Amino acid sequence: MPIENIPEIYFESISTPQDLFVYDFKMTNDVVKSKVNLSMNMFSFLQVGKKQVHFANTSVAVNNQQSLLLKKGNWLWTELLDTDAIYYCKLFFFSEKKLTDFLSKYTNNVKPYQEEVPYFVIENDDYLAAFISTLSSQAFSNPIFSDALLLLKFEEIMLYLLNKYGSQFEHYLHSLISKEISPFKNVVESNVHSNLKLEEIAFLCNMSLSTFKRHFTNEYHEPPGKWIQDKRLQRAKELLQTGNLKASDIYLDIGYNNLSNFSVAFKNKFGISPSDILK
C-alpha cells in the first residue's frame, strides 16, 4: 500500500509550500484504508459519501452531516462512495504558522492544551453550509488576491467555530501546535483489538515494519505477531463466552481475513473450536 503525501500530491504548478490551500476532491471509486502522510492540519468538509479515519489510538467516521478538523500526522483513512457512486469533499489546509498567528491575534494564547484525540468533529449547520459553498480551488486561482482571500476565509471559519464551541475548540486548536508524540506502547495497545495489520500499526507509529518489529521486541520481549495474535484470540474468547456472538460475527474485527483461518488459530491456542466455546 503506497503512502500518499497530502496535500503535496494536490500541488500542480506550485513550486513553494503554501500556508493556506484549498482543494476540491472528487472520486468515483471506493478507497479502502489509504496510508496518508498529512503534512498540514486540514479541514475536511465532506459533501457526498462517507469517511473513516484511523489514528494512532482511536478512529472516527463521518458523513456529510459533519465536518472534520484533522491534525497533521500519519493516518489511515477510508473514503466510501454514496449510493450515486460518487465521493466529494472540500479540503482546507493550513500551516502551523497561520494557526499560531491566529491564536496570537484572537485568543489569550494560553499554554498549549494536551488533547489526546487528533481530530475535532464539527456539526454542520446553515452557516457552515454557506461557508463551504464559497470554498473552491478555482475561486482562489488569482495570485494577486488569493492569499488575502484565503486568509479571510481561514479567519472566518476559525472565528465562527470559536464562537460555536468556545473553549473546547480553543483548547483543541492549541493542541495542534503541541509537539508531544504518542508513546509507542500507547499506539500498540490502542490497536491490539483492532483489525489492523502489523504493517499498518507500524505506519501509525511512523516506523518501517522492520524497525517496528525490533522496537516491539525490545519493549515487550516477544515478537509482535505472536503477541498481538494471542491478545486478539483472548479477546475473541471473551466475546464468544458472552453467548451473544458467533465466530462469524467477530473474526474480521480481530484481524482475520476468513473464518477458517480464525477457527484454526483459535483451536491451536485453546484446544477447542470457537463453536464449542459454550458447550
UniProtKB/TrEMBL annotation:
<dbReference type="GO" id="GO:0043565">
    <property type="term" value="F:sequence-specific DNA binding"/>
</dbReference>
<dbReference type="InterPro" id="IPR054015">
    <property type="entry name" value="ExsA-like_N"/>
</dbReference>
<dbReference type="Pfam" id="PF12833">
    <property type="entry name" value="HTH_18"/>
</dbReference>
<keyword id="KW-0805">Transcription regulation</keyword>
<keyword id="KW-0804">Transcription</keyword>
<keyword id="KW-0238">DNA-binding</keyword>
<dbReference type="GO" id="GO:0003700">
    <property type="term" value="F:DNA-binding transcription factor activity"/>
</dbReference>
<dbReference type="Pfam" id="PF22200">
    <property type="entry name" value="ExsA_N"/>
</dbReference>
<protein>
    <submittedName>
        <fullName>AraC-like DNA-binding protein</fullName>
    </submittedName>
</protein>
<feature type="domain" description="HTH araC/xylS-type">
    <location>
        <begin position="182"/>
        <end position="279"/>
    </location>
</feature>
<dbReference type="InterPro" id="IPR018060">
    <property type="entry name" value="HTH_AraC"/>
</dbReference>
<dbReference type="InterPro" id="IPR009057">
    <property type="entry name" value="Homeodomain-like_sf"/>
</dbReference>
